[in-house]
Amino acid sequence: MYDVDAIRADFPILGREVNGKPLVYLDNGASAQKPRAVIDAISTAYSHEYANVHRGLHTLSNIATEKYEGVRGIIARFLGVSDEDQIILNSGTTEGINMVAYGWAMPRFEAGDEIILSVMEHHANIVPWHFLRERQGVVLKWVDVDSTGALDPQAVIEAITPKTKLIAVTHLSNVLGTRVDVKTICAAARAHGVAVLVDGSQAAVHMPVNVDDIGADFYAITGHKLYGPSGSGAIYVHKDRLAEMRPFMGGGDMIREVSKEAVTYNDPPMKFEAGTPGIVQTIGLGVALEYMMGVGMQAIAAHEDDLSAYAQSKLAGLNWLNVQGTTPDKAAIFSFTLDGAAHAHDISTILDKKGVAVRAGHHCAGPLMDHLGVTATCRASFGMYNTRAEVDILVEALELAHELFA
Ligand code: PLP
């Protein structure tokens, strides 16, 4: 039995008020709140167990190293990855995808080579590929979503040509809530010798993920959406791609030996982790993932699917509300505009007065906004601690906004 009240009690911030109303936090797509276990782990690390990792031979450094390194295995377990050496720890998805762009793609791609992207990618999975277009003449090929916001895997597969080197695609849209059948895409891509990078920033939050089963070459996650600290994250890199990838950043920890004449590198994954990492952030991420696995990813997904179905039915009753993305199995992420002149920013300000936190803007998804023919939407994105009662409060607040702008 999913005890949402017990889960809510684990997140101290959910007890606060905003503008005199109980907080209804529906901005999880941007960043999620942190459970007490994570907050305590951060405090303990800094209060009792802090030192730099890897380099020390003293007690505190050994404790910090053990805790930090232990997170690699936790992430591997969380993502269904059998070999934890394929997990590179980093500061989040943006760093992970840039590492692949600079370290793996740039030295290998030539002018005219093609990268296939869906139109609903986040800028973190677009801009690094534009770098390759600008600097090396790589061609970006875009695959549209249909009118429900679904991405047909066949459309992605049909876009493959002999020039295709990479498919970079989200597993779950941060704007539409659409899930993508990345396993089918990966299987077809492999048959064509094409690599696949999956942006798992949102999917890993809302559903069980098994990267070994998906068969991706790269799978990126970001800690702050997974109820962990900002500045933490990881990317899975298949061992064959690890062998092909050059280090993206140089510095301490990633080397074996450095002389005036030459440098030799550490083995992966350390080869790709230059400099002092986000030690405490990563330790916090490990605790967050243990917390999620403790509740159970299947249970979290079932709870959120119920919220999604409930919200879909409630929002469908508002005939002046235009929800973008209507696939029935969508995650509980709702982007919408209101009929009339009201701007998304004004709507979110009114919702905020009712204690409801949503995001307004382009959600770092410029091509998708163009595809939808809008400049901005409001987005209500749910997490493991949200409730049906909060859907009702959102609906009431939207009715008020509608009245004010009608
Ligand atoms: N990809 C998706 C789908 C996202 O939702 C986000 C965050 O909004 C990112 C990538 C970028 O994550 P970060 O800013 O944590 O690197």
Condensed summary:
The protein has helices at 4-9, 36-48, 59-79, 93-105, 127-136, 153-158, 182-191, 203-206, 211-214, 239-244, 279-295, 297-316, 344-353, 366-372, 388-405, and strands at 17-18, 21-22, 24-25, 87-90, 114-118, 139-143, 164-170, 195-199, 218-222, 233-237, 255-258, 263-265, 321-324, 333-338, 356-357, 359-361, 377-381. With 406 residues, the chain is of the alpha/beta class. The strands form 5 sheets. Strands 4-10-9-8-7-5-6 form a 7-stranded mixed beta sheet, with helices on both faces. A 4-stranded antiparallel beta sheet has the order 13-14-17-16, with helices on one face. A two-stranded antiparallel sheet has the order 1-2.
Task: Describe the protein in words.
- There is one protein chain.
- The protein has 2 domains: 137 residues, Aspartate Aminotransferase, domain 1; 256 residues, Aspartate Aminotransferase, domain 2, CATH 3.40.640.10.
- Helix 2 packs antiparallel against helix 11, helix 3 packs across helix 11 and helix 12 runs parallel beside helix 15.
- Helices cover 41% and strands 17% of the residues.
- By secondary structure, it is α/β, with parallel strands linked by helices.
- The strands form 5 sheets. Strands 4-10-9-8-7-5-6 form a 7-stranded mixed β-sheet, with helices on both faces. The chain has a 4-stranded antiparallel β-sheet with strand order 13-14-17-16, covered by helices on one side.
- The two termini are 42 Å apart.
- Strand 5, helix 5 and strand 6 form a beta-alpha-beta unit.
- It has 15 helices and 17 strands.
- Pyridoxal-5'-phosphate (PLP) binds next to helix 4.
